[in-house]
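assembly run, all chains below
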Amino acid sequence: MGYQGHFRVWRGSDQGGGLEDFTVEVNEGEVVLDVIHRLQATQTPDLAVRWNCKAGKCGSCSAEINGKPRLLCMTRMSVFAEDETVTVTPMRTFPVIRDLVTDVSYNYRKAREIPSFKPPAGVAPGEYRMQQVDVERSQEFRKCIECFLCNNTCHVIRDHEENKESFAGPRFLMRVAELEMHPLDEADRVAQAQSSHGLGLCNITKCCSDVCPEHIKITDNALIPMKERVADQRYDPIVWLGNKLFRRS
Amino acid sequence: MRAQIAQRTLRTDRWWLPPLATFVGLLLISIYAAVRTFMGDYYWVDEYRYLTPMYSPCLSEECLPAAAHFGRPLPELPGFLTPPVVIIPFLLGFRVTCYYYRKAYYRAAWMSPPACAVAEPHAKYTGETRFPLIAQNLHRYFFYAASLLLLINIYDAGYAFSTGVGLGNLVLLANVGLLAAYTLSCHSCRHIVGGQLKHFSKHPVRYWAWTQISKLNAKHMQLAWASLIFVCVTDLYVALVASGTISDLRFVN
Amino acid sequence: MPELERHSFDVLVIGAGGAGLRAAIEAREHGMRTAVLCKSLFGKAHTVMAEGGIAAAMGNVNSNDSWQVHFRDTMRGGKFLNNWRMAELHAREAPDRVWELETYGALFDRTKDGRISQRNFGGHEYPRLAHVGDRTGLELIRSLQQKVVSLQQDDFAETGDYESRLKVFQEFTVTDLVLDDGRVAGAFGYWRESGRFVLFEAPAVVLATGGIGKSFKVTSNSWEYTGDGHALALRAGASLINMEFVQFHPTGMVWPPSVKGILVTESVRGDGGVLRNSDGKRFMFDYIPEVFKDKYADNEAEADRWYADPEHNRRPPELLPRDEVARAINSEVKAGRGSEHGGVFLDVSTRLPAEEITRRLPSMHHQFKELADVDITAQPMEVGPTCHYVMGGVQVDPDTGASSVPGLFAAGEVSGGMHGSNRLGGNSLSDLLVFGRRAGAGASGYVSELSARPVCSSEAVAEAERVAVAPFSGSDEGGENPYTLHMELQQAMNDLVGIIRKAEEMDQAIKRLDELKRRAATLVVEGHRQFNPGWHLALDLRNMLVVSECVAKAALMRTESRGGHTRDDYPQMEADWRRKLLVCRLPGADGPGASVEVVEEPQIPIRSDLLELFEHAELQKYLTADELEG
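ok done. output:
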């Protein structure tokens, strides 16, 4: 049942580091996180890894396995051949703290930049009425466990550090979409999506949707609908012409 | 400081295969379309009234009168230009600004990014924020134009039945079916039909339409390829029959 | 100590789950400068694991529901051992707390007329659980998190600093509370990443640290659940009550080994899932206890009719309170009628169409598919009991969450009394909100009435630091490894103080705990303080050991079976015991050999108008003749 698996794990800190090789026991039914824990218990007591629920619900154990952004707790060892070397590295887009743990504060910063839910004026708590079909779109986005794998894989910031300033990343553009589609939210979010949160930087290459462990259709259901709403407001030539002709701002 | 990893990617699968396949596919189809466009011939089978979708509508002086279902309002085109150049900007515009094709060629041709979690080769990236790529936002207007052309294609396919039924009729019919599915599954269409609404519950009909379009939309990529390839197949069939290389298989008449 | 980082706040909230965040929001809204300290990242707390829903008598689905009915269900579920005032406040205020979440942006599933939809759950007479599919905990934590952000945005607009009034310190562990003359003066702890020590000076601390599940081998709880708040309170001089009551959730995953214990939500049963043994028999009909006979169906036909027509049929026995179901599964497995991996079968695939299952139970479908390679729309799940929740906790004033230590408050799982001997599903999330808010307000009230702020003496801080670094200088001869010790503790608690308990086994457990405590004094950790999981575990062990001792000692003393405490040698529930609380304290707080002591104290009698909510015949099952007369 069990076998000796080959692992290659990135170890180091912001001062530098590299891949280290390990041979470690792997048993039936295990996930990559189990093996990382075995390494911790038997060979590398100070191997840093962030984790929590072990059931794919909290989004703590994000990392990259064989180069692909994934949750360590949701990657079963059975997807690898027994003689395959499994390479585990920290998320690339965020600064590393130690080993597999990265500094994800970028995400919390971006979360703060998005204006919060604006409750409907004059509707008391308990008086909110919403239809199921109207909440379902936002509910899909609220399935997000904030593992930040989408932001990690998005080339806009993964390959271009300088864009972090102006780009909220798929996670938080989806948050804007969620509020925009919330049946009772009263704020207008479309113009800001383009001007403050960097929607225009997205070139819809869909890697965020590919890596989402919750299988949220980020691109099709959040980003593209937001782009279409922006087009409604900003790139409708007829509206544009009207504004020019009649000097509306 | 990010973790220092020298490799551009640590992916061990053949991540380069899908973009390569996409690139080759798009290239071959572009070459075929260019050749056929500038051929300026074999687009009309007079006997069975087959008109290739690439030449529909045929609007300029050099069009065969029988193939010009809507008359020939345009003068003869100068130089090497052929009738399709009138409509191609709209067809091409629809496909080029399509959200699926954008993904396809950004990845395959521009390598931005070549595949997920594979570093792109460009030093700077501004996405679709400035000219020319900001024009991608005009997709919905191309959608309107393409819908109009689709209606004309449907008319052509129907018109061809006036002489009987042959394999060519079925090809034309399948072609407009695929084109219709692709056009309807477009993200802009999904938005206009219902996606733009904040409260579905107040618009039950549009909501129903939106759910149907959404189902099609999930297959937008497959439809994009199927319809693109089938347009070429249809065109090739018409060209082969028009040039007398093969004869149409007739079922009625 | 030159490297000591210091911060000063009005209210310190330890824990960032539902109770902690709700307390922090309340304290900030009362104008307190508030800090939240949490071991994980902000938004990852164990609350996200809650699946079923939030119990609140809003009456959206069945208008017969009211706070009185909810109160009754809660008391019944807890076998009348609950602190009646907490149960009352909880039942009365839960609906407001849920509606408040909507103003934070929460999106619950809806009824046809646009209200919050409510679902059935074990022990609740009417459909009562507000939910979002089966990820309600995530919705709750995200809504509170987003409310925190929203308050921070307000502060930013006003002061130019997001964190001027409400700040979250994440991946931070508190090791000790600092006292000044018996009052709370602050908290001492370390950054998990750097190991750097920090002193927080604050006159009020709200404990919202959750439970103690990591002391048991099979548990649904994550690594964070090491009883930190329970232990901090004990060491500060507060008392814990009801620690013998530990809830084993009847349905945890049993395979594969790496996810053993992870929860399978009760909504699977609420939505029609049934339990079968290896003979294919729906065995729960054999396990309906006398007190529930008139509320639960005794045949399959009636049970099945109930889903469509709850008015005229009795509930299926799969929806009995958790303790009953857990014991039933335990018995079936022991009798050799278990599944391949030592559980029983929970089947929803033959009860609902596949589409309906994926719509109602999306994350269960996902969890089984990804972790166990089981498609629950086509196959049954294998499930078994898992340590899930501790009913016991810090003894608090129901209205303010104040403990007996001035300045120390507690809310959520770490507090005790609300759930009596057994918690109903869905009552946890509402508990977090109701008492999180009350503790936040209680702490704010306490701080605003202080005339002088207590002071953290340098001696107290030095002592806290000494204790924290002790594992690095452990004696060479002992050289105990924290991982080994932890495994032994979990094994002992699971085997000897588990679902079914006996006097001899618990005696043995107490001896083992003594020995483990002795060995823990010689724990040795290698390396340095920078992210060192071994060191973290060594410090957590100190908490787990003292809390486990409370559980074992209290369990030994209570010679009856009630709710989450089942004695093989005393299988009956005794009305006399209902009047007694077992209270756990730690005299000589931090002395190395200090042992907890458990004493009997009288339970507060239930207010008469609340008693009148029950039929006399029902009260006879729980109360003594004395009480019934009085």
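Chain B touches chain A through 48 residues (CB under 8 Å).

Helices of chain B lie at 17-39, 84-96, 99-108, 139-159, 167-184, 187-195, 204-217, 220-242.

not gonna interpret more than that til we talk
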